[in-house]
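Exercise 7b. Backbone tokens:
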């Protein structure tokens, strides 16, 4: 593999790490905005107090962020190992 291939792997790893951080922070903002804007019914009060919600889309950003973060870290490790191995 050429030097450019290793740089592409490292670049993709950095991109996925950045994307994962953005998704996780976006989830926190979205969840805070959701809990501050709901109308308080009996179910919503329980949901607000326990933070156990039935709306799975609130967890989708967090799960996607963690997956992206893990993929990015793995790509960075692989790219770093391949780059440092003498040819």
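Sequence design result:
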């Amino acid at each position: 593999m050429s030097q450019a291939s290793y740089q592409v792997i490292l670049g993709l790893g950095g991109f996925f790490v950045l994307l994962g951080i953005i998704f996780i922070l976006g989830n926190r903002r979205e969840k805070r905005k959701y809990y501050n804007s709901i109308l308080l019914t009996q179910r919503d009060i329980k949901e607000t107090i326990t933070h156990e919600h039935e709306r799975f889309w609130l967890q989708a950003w967090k799960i996607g962020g963690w997956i992206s973060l893990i993929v990015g870290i793995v790509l960075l490790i692989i790219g770093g190992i391949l780059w440092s191995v003498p040819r």
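Instructor comment: The mean pLDDT is 82. Residues 3-37 form the longest helix (35 residues).
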